[in-house]
Structures are given as C-alpha cells and as structure tokens.
Write a structure and sequence with these properties.
18 strands; five-stranded mixed β-sheet; 3 domains; Nucleotidyltransferase, domain 5; Actin, Chain A, domain 4; alpha+beta; single chain
Amino acid sequence: MIFKKIIGIDLGTDTTQVYLKGSGIVVNEPTIVAFNNRTDHVVAVGSEAKKMLSRTPAHITAIRPMSHGVIADFDMVKEMLQHFLKNERIPWSWVTETVVSVPTNLTEVERKSVEDLLHEVGANKVYLIEQPLAAAFGSHLDINMPSAFLVVDIGAGTTDMAIISMNGIVVSKRLKIAGDFLNNEIIKGVRDELRLHIGEPTAEEIKIAVGSAMTTGEKLELTIRGRDVGNGLPREIAIRDTQVRMWLVRPLKLVVEALKDLIESAPPELVGDIYKNGMYVCGGGSLLRGIAQIIEKEIGVNVQIVEDPLTCVARGAGLVCERFDEHKHLLNNFSRLKLDD
C-alpha cells in the first residue's frame, strides 16, 4: 500500500494501456467486454473477451465499448477499467492521480464523460492530454523548442494529426478513418468482389498479413475461410495483396487529403519547420506496409514511423506521469477549466 500513485491511461478504441509511474506499462489489453444479456453480468474483458468476438452464443454479447476514440457505452467501459485497475502490479493507494490521453477536438461533453468515468473508478484527480501531444512525448521529440513537428496517430477508431510547437498543439484534425475503417473496406471488398462473407477478426488478419498502401515488390497471399454469399455454405479462397491494396486506396487517399488540409491551415514558418523536421507517424495504422512511403510521396516531406508505435501514446502519458510537476501545466484539467469559465 502506498499513499499516492500516478497512472497514465491510453483508452483506445482497440487497446487500453495503463502506465504506472515507476513501473512502466502494466496493462496492455484489448478494449473489449463480453457480457451475459440474461443476467447483465460481465463474463470477460480484454484478451478473454477478444477470443469471443463474432463467436458468441445468442445470450452473450462481445462489444467494443469505445467508438472512434470516445466512450460509446459508459457502464461497460467502467466495468472494464475497474477490472484492469485491479491488476496485481497496480498497488492500492489513498490518492490516485490519472493522466488520460484523449483524441483531439473533443466536445466538452465528451471530455466531461472521460473525467466522470475516471472519478467513478477511483481517481481523485483527472488530467487530460491530447493523443498527438502524448505521442510526441512518447517519441522523445524536443517539442518545447520554438520549432514545429507534425505528429500523426493512426489508431483503430480515429486518426489524430497535429502540428506541435512550444509544448502545445497549434492546429489539429481528427478523422474517423483509421484501422477499423480499413477493416470494413476489406469486408466490403471480399463480399462484393469475391462473394464471401467474413467477420472483423478475419479482415484484421488480412490487413496484417497481406495489406499494403503501395507496391512493396513482394507478392503476398493468404488463404481465408468464410460464408459464401450465394449458397451460404463455407468456402475457402486465396486473397492477394494487389486486391487488398485496391480496397484501401480510397480511405488512404482521404487521410492524405486531410494531412494536406492541416498543413495548408498552419502558419508558413511552421510549415518550413515540418519540411526540415519531417513527419512522425504512430499507432497501429502505421504498421501497414508502405504507408510511410505513400505519405512521403504525396506530401513531399520525410516520414518516420516512431519506435514501438503501438505503445507510443501510453509511453507519452507515462513520461508525463514520471515528470508530473514539470509537465502538469500542459495538462487539461477539465474541472479547473470549468471553474475558471
């Protein structure tokens, strides 16, 4: 038992990560909850619930309680977080302070719901940090200098992009086109062109195994199984990287267009800094083959995938926890802002 603990939380659409000050990332679990419809009891969370996704009987539902980076089902997220925070590596304490990463440009209601959630699971103080800012900390960028960095976080539910300078976000943009959107495009492509019904887990498998943003020079192929659209019977087909690439052209083009709009809205001096410093991409979407090359080709600046992109935001929130007093002024304390209004 300790008097006070400080934890950083990345509450993502696909994965929830918890960073404990002094210990690093102690929880890294899928943001999925399975519950019994008859009894209204949660039967599994995290990895155990993920195994049940698209495979449950009628009385059990496995859901993702976060949608596009915001809370879609308050009670389910609360149950899930309570379970994660009971982890044996997280000690009990009298006082708990939390730094939570949130998408950019949230409404006041969405921000308030995050804070209410953390208070209900036992946090005494809640501080919010926007995901691109946390990602910049996690990437060890020197953002306290009067020089701009462009950070893009391609998650599962949202793509957050921001130009950061002097420890703050100058301009930012949030898109609902991210990993889940790509999965849906693959599901539609397989159904319309290959006449096969597949679920989200299979679409994710296709994206990881053979998905790419541009030609990589290697031929990739994956055998998948699903339900035939015509007769409803099981069928197996081979899927090639060229087919998947065609399905992903439209969403990737929308991401690139949003990046162009963001850069156009930035002050000219900062755009010059971006040309010099390059662009930093993190999140699960950054692992798609060729994504750095296609952005580089379209935007004309050097693109770098950050080290360990999947935990970048959680590590950034954790760095803020480690040097809390130094970075506290950068955090958005919803209650304090409310009182000041």
